[in-house]
Write a structure and sequence with these properties.
Chain A: This is Septum formation topological specificity factor MinE. The complex is a heterodimer of chains A (96) and B (266). With 96 residues, chain A is α+β, with helices and mostly antiparallel strands. In chain A, 45% of the residues lie in helices and 21% in strands. With 266 residues, chain B is of the alpha/beta class. In chain B, strands 3-4-2-5-1-6-7-8 form an eight-stranded mixed sheet, sandwiched between helices. The chains are: A alpha+beta (96), B alpha/beta (266). The interface between A and B is medium-sized, with 22 and 23 residues.
Chain lengths: 96, 266
């Protein structure tokens, strides 16, 4: 059967590669010891920080830990879709 | 006799990865190299090491008997008949791990040190009390891992605990590797496992059906000249003994195997 499957079979992604990705994510969470509650708090602080610097958050904030095996550390990748808030003074002058 | 004694705990995150096989095989291989070796089973309640070495019928006293003073240490050590430089200190099978403390195990190992160059400690799986007993006396640790997600994840947790126990060295053995599955992209490669865990690689051991025969007969696989796993364990023992030995090439290159691989039946 495996001989017949050699022909006309679509190349699938190796399952070891999928395992590798999953493991990377699992170890990242494990090493960073971040639970969901703390991640939510972190997200909220990031949104506040954006507000403070004049950005409006216009979509879902995503924080994805990623492991860096060479030195056993974790990188936090934050994806924050923002739009620069229009300056209040500019808006007033535009209305005039 | 003056020598530096090294206590090495062989451990893992999850059970069934091959710790006892590793301890029995490496212990016997070191004894074959002429070293004084004691293999010690700390898996109280579930002992296995005696079976792997074919010594199950010769046990009279065990580790808890020594700790409680029922027997002397020398009485409890079971010497291997063919390789008398190898001794086993068995675990108690009828007791509970809570009856032993890390300090007691450490004291026991200190008593063994003058007589043995290598003390290999077979740790129970997991990270509970038994694990703490097994790592308390250790100078070094060997982590046995299978190339699969649950084993690597649990091992990563164990590395954290071993690091916090201030061990001199933590080495990795990747056990039960199937080169064909790695080649087909269905098993994590040794390199990927090592990258994730970021510790020194001590050895790579292939999956080998002869291991089952060896545990059936009580003759460690290092005595089986045809066994690739046996050769891998022998190499690991030589590395522990301070020799530089290259890793085995697990890719079998015989013509039949190559043909089998072409037709996806190997």
């Amino acid at each position: 059967m495996s001989f017949l499957n050699m022909f006309g079979k679509e190349k699938e992604r190796p399952t070891a590669a999928t395992a590798d990705d999953r493991l990377s994510l699992v170890l990242s969470y494990q090493r960073s010891d971040i639970d969901e509650r703390r991640l939510k708090q972190f997200q909220a602080r990031l949104i506040d920080l954006c507000d403070e610097f004049g950005y409006d958050v216009v979509g879902q904030v995503e924080i994805r830990p990623q492991s860096r095996p060479k030195d056993n550390t974790t990188i936090l990748n934050a994806s924050i879709p923002v739009r620069l808030r229009a300056n209040a003074d500019d808006e007033e002058s535009a209305d005039l | 006799m003056e020598h530096k004694s090294v206590a090495i705990t062989v451990t893992s995150g999850k059970g069934g990865v091959g710790k006892s096989t590793t301890v029995a095989s490496v212990g016997l291989a070191l004894a074959q190299l002429g070293r004084q070796v004691c293999v010690m089973d700390t898996d109280i309640g579930l002992r296995k090491l005696d079976l792997m070495l074919g010594l199950e019928n010769r046990i009279v006293y065990d580790l808890i008997d020594v700790i409680e003073g029922t027997s002397k240490l020398r009485q409890s050590l079971v010497r291997h008949k063919e390789y008398p430089t190898l001794a086993l200190l068995p675990a108690a099978q009828t007791r509970y791990k809570e009856e032993v403390s890390p300090a007691q195990v450490k004291q026991l190992v200190d008593e063994l040190r003058p007589e043995f160059e290598f003390i290999l400690i077979d740790s129970p799986a997991g990270i509970e009390g038994g694990f703490r007993n097994a790592i308390a006396p250790a100078d070094r640790a060997i982590l046995v891992v299978n190339p699969e997600i649950p084993s690597v994840r649990d091992s990563d947790r164990v590395i954290g605990l071993l690091e916090s126990a201030d061990l001199e060295q933590i080495d990795l053995i990747v056990n039960r590797v199937q080169p064909g599955m790695v080649k087909d992209g269905d098993m994590l490669s040794v390199e990927r496992v090592q990258n994730h865990l970021a510790i020194n690689l001590l050895g790579i051991v292939p999956e080998d059906r002869r291991i089952i025969r060896s545990s059936n007969t009580g003759e460690p696989v290092v005595l089986d000249e045809k066994s690739l796993a046996g050769r891998a364990f022998n190499n690991i023992a030589r590395r522990i003994n301070g020799e530089e030995v290259p890793y085995l090439d697990l890719e079998e290159t015989s013509l039949i195997n190559r043909i089998k691989r072409i037709f996806h039946i190997a």
